[in-house]
TrEMBL record:
This is Rieske 2Fe-2S domain-containing protein. Gene3D superfamilies: Naphthalene 1,2-dioxygenase Alpha Subunit, Chain A, domain 1, Rieske [2Fe-2S] iron-sulphur domain. CDD domains: Rieske_RO_Alpha_PhDO_like. SUPFAM superfamilies: Bet v1-like, ISP domain. Keywords: 2Fe-2S, Iron, Iron-sulfur, Metal-binding, Oxidoreductase. The keyword Iron applies. It comes from Microtetraspora glauca. Residues 30-138 form the Rieske domain. InterPro entries: Cholesterol_7-desaturase (IPR050584), LigXa_C (IPR045623), Rieske_2Fe-2S (IPR017941), Rieske_2Fe-2S_sf (IPR036922). Pfam families: LigXa_C, Rieske.
Amino acid sequence: MAQLFTEAENRLLTQTGPGTPMGELMRRYWIPAFLSERLPMENSEPFEITLLGESLVAFRGRNGQVGLMDSKCPHRRASLVLARVEDDCALRCIYHGWKVDAQGQVLETPPEPPNSRFAQSIRHRAYPTREAGGIIWTYMGPEEERPEFPMWPFNGLPEGHVWANHFYQPSNWLQGLEGDLDAAHGGYLHYSKEEWDRQRNSNSRLGKFLFDPRPQTAVEPAPWGLQTAFRYHLEEENEAVFWIHPLISPFYTMFSHAEDGAQGGLFHAWVPSTDDSHYVYSVVWQRESPLTEDRRQAIDATQGYTAVDKANGYLSVNWDGKGYRQDRESMTEGLSFSGFEGVHLQDLAIQHSMGPVVDRSKENLCAEDFLIIQARRFFLETLEKLARGEELPALQPGMDYSRIEHRWVFAPSSTSLAEVLTRKDWDSSTEENTRDVSTVKAAWSALGVDGAV
């Protein structure tokens, strides 16, 4: 088979540090820096975080403002993680008392003579921040290129309507994002007998994907990046759920959901830390009503959002230093296809197993990888636009992030993906979605998985 992606192209897509093409592209966008919960309003301590290959210190001033800057003092490069937090959102280095504010201005150099103007000649590397949706966001690119802050659909909602989470994953960012575009893995990697029974017995057809081991996909260009569509057969083969699923530059996706009439969605981001690691963000939101504790627990039972070790850099609690704990007994008993519990852990484990950075030149891609191929080509083409100085996806003047199309459609399985993408007036509200469907599809029988028949 002809090589689809070269080692050079792979490096272009996976390297995101300062001065790299993909790193410079990502720096043109507002990106998640960390969860707001990592800097509570009271008694928060500075902490170090690496974003796009840069070691930064994050802190919250007593005025509530959040600062994000180079983690080393501009004087003698002592760690500012050890610094004192000042009232005016500034850090004072404990080595010589230099004071630097959140804009990177050196305000005081106490050991210098009283009339010294030395401080005014120094500018410390610092980045602007915004807080929205339970996340601290930052912009790390050229100031003259800074875009408007994106108004995601969850930004203005009350606190109880939004639930933000993230994991730290020891592998390259692109492995995570590509997993979200891979429709076919869901029925295998994410199979468990418990989840099978939950989907089969649920009146809602929104999140059902286990009954179709061979889903179809489609893609079309969009102002924000790519618009993709997944089609999954339901229990009855003549019915299907279609997921209209945007890929938003540089590393975002969104799904829609509607439970008991509460319209909302699921936002994902894969934010590079180093070239060998990234943060996986998930934000669940509901517009009309708060997310109840029962609803959060139901989501968590499938996703496993809370299975993180917050004292250990937000790694999965199943991380043992080398990999993720796998339950081989559950595989033998037919309770789990993968031996990992929860969608997030399943994704983390398989993506980590590929190595820190996949060598995509050694892959053997097939028909089911259509969206993966299109996404890589999209990123390569976007890098060319950046090099030519052209307008980048999702950064057009007046771009309204809150109106990016993400929806579910229930339709006969014979409906073409092209028609679903074209009919933008179709969504889950156009059809009744509580019909009880009980006939289970038998395509799983060849896999020998208990319960999937």
